[in-house]
Design brief:
Elements: E1 5-10, E2 15-20, E3 25-29, H1 45-48, E4 52-54, E5 57-59, H2 68-74, E6 76-77
Antiparallel strand pairs: 1-2, 2-3, 3-6, 4-5
Length: 84
């Protein structure tokens, strides 16, 4: 089983920075999914910003959510910022 989401930060460009239970961080681009009927409410930037980590994935008030495996497998690893 792949790790589950523990923290999510939704961005204006319809991407999400995710932290997983194993400590890994990935950035997921939701734009390819926004034409699917279930995800069309997420096209509203204000509504998209309401996404939160819940039950191992990212969910919105209208109960839209992504499969946590999709978030992990399609997310691009985020490199840790170098210490200044």
């Amino acid at each position: 089983m792949l790790p589950r989401v523990t923290h999510a930060l939704c961005h204006d460009d319809f991407s999400i920075t995710l932290t997983f239970a194993n400590g890994e961080r990935r950035r997921f681009d939701a734009r390819p999914y926004l034409d699917y009927p279930v995800f069309q409410p997420l096209r509203n930037p204000g509504y998209f910003q309401l996404g939160k980590a819940a039950h191992g994935t990212v969910a919105w008030p209208g109960e839209e959510d992504f499969c946590p495996d999709t978030l992990y497998l399609e997310g691009v690893p985020v490199q840790a910022q170098a210490a200044l």
